[in-house]
Amino acid sequence: MTLKSYLALITISTITIIVVAVALVFGYSLQNAYLDGIGKRGLELARVIAQDDKVIQAARISNSGQPVSIENHIENLRSKTDASYIVVVDQNAIRLSHPTESLIGKKFIGDDVYPTLRQGIDSTSIASGSLGEAIRNFTPIKDETGIIGAVSVGYLTKTTSELIHQHLREAGLLVIFVYLLGVIIAIVLIAKLKRTFLSLEPEEIVRKFKEHELILDSIRDGIVAIDHQQYVTAINSMAIEWLTMNVLSASQVVNKPLSEQSQSLSHFVLEAKGQMTQNKFNLGKLEFIANLYPIKSPKGDIGYVIVFFPDHGKKSLEQELTTTKNYADLLRAKTHEYANHLNVLSGMLQAERYQDAIEFLQQESDGDQAALRRIIKTIENSAVAGLIFAKHNKAKDLKVDMLIESDCQLGKYPPKANEALVTLVGNLIDNALLAAWSNRLLTTPFVKFYISDRNAHIMLQIEDSGAGVDEKLESRILDFGVSSKHNTEQHGIGLYLVKKVVDQYHGSLDWERSEVNTTVFSIYLDKRALTR
Length: 532
Description:
Blueprint: H1 3-50, H2 53-63, H3 71-78, E1 85-90, H4 114-119, E2 123-129, E3 132-143, E4 146-156, H5 157-196, H6 202-218, E5 222-227, E6 232-235, H7 237-244, H8 250-253, H9 263-272, E7 277-283, E8 286-297, E9 300-310, H10 316-350, H11 354-378, H12 382-397, E10 401-404, H13 415-438, E11 446-452, E12 457-464, H14 494-504, E13 508-513, E14 519-526, H15 527-531
Parallel strand pairs: 10-11
Antiparallel strand pairs: 1-4, 2-3, 3-4, 5-6, 5-9, 7-8, 8-9, 11-12, 12-14, 13-14
Helix pairs in contact: 1-5, 10-11, 11-12, 12-13, 13-14
Enzyme class: transferase
Pfam family, one: sCache_3_2
Subcellular location: Cell membrane
């Protein structure tokens, strides 16, 4: 079924059920109320007639055995009311009046009169008499001696049914009007929904959303859609890769402020003021071009679509080649160094100077063994311990002295917490080693490392002999792509990842320049957040 047919069926079926239910309840209530009203009206009329002196006198005469008729008097009273008939009987149920004169003096037909004659109670019943089925209301005729007769006021059911049907027809017209009004409203609502959905069926809408997502992800430019409050409403996979380095997923970025991912793009949107514009910004050491397209509606601007892509300048390839060449030279130097060590060992073994060979190997490994023993003794967390030892070897290769404090301590944590700790320790040590190595011409390069979880927090502190953070970058050093390193390398990710982990585990991150011109980074994490 189409959406229009489905909605029409559901809406009209619902309206029909409601209208039919209301009509039945209304008709039943109307009928009961009308019949109840007839009964009360008949009893009131019977009570009035029972107090009539002529009626009382006639009952007395009939009870004494003398024939009597008050038909003319009763018929005169009945003609002024809506009653079908009025019958007066004596205490023996002999009729004293009746619309049919031949039945006057005959016994009343029906046993429903006797509770009134014998017990003196008012009653209402539906029974068949000489005139047909009727609603019969009885009340006693009394004098000082007691019950001397009864008055019956009747309403023929045929006449009553005609009156009820007339009322029901009037109510039915109202119900039909309400039903038609509901159908018209349903048709208008369905037409409005179809226009809102551009005459598309739900399956087509879902398919178009999937196609929209696939098309966005297939585009090699970064695309971000935001609303008028700069909250991200849609983003493609390339934008996720460039803005968050795939640290976050699309669901974690959507409905979040754009400023959390890029302050530069957020500022560009503010400066655009509803106009299509183009600007440049940096992510790390890559320069990007961003095109801002306003989304307009009759009510005004409702957001922007931002399309950005790398600005491949003339020097881009040259920088990549330079970086690759430097890396190849480094590998060549390391290969040459290890070749020299192997040649030394080979010469000692050929000269049968085994003790000298053992001492040479021992000399090479003593430093590593001491560092390894210190790490194993203080760091129980195997993931972090292995990482620290790897970074110690890297520092050795860079000719940077890495000191691991003797009072370090770190226990075991769940795998997810270990992953966070590895991210923190790895990025902070890498930054510290590179900073110390970059400043090696001015001071002896060194890095001090300390980690402890003895109290309610995990404390991580790294000190390096680097030149420190540039004052111009202090307020943005934790943003993605911002780095104080030289331009030939792509950086600006490490501290961004560190800040994400610190925020995730309700921690704090701070850095300062010490009195001895070193840079100290300090991190505190809540242990309870790590173990949840």
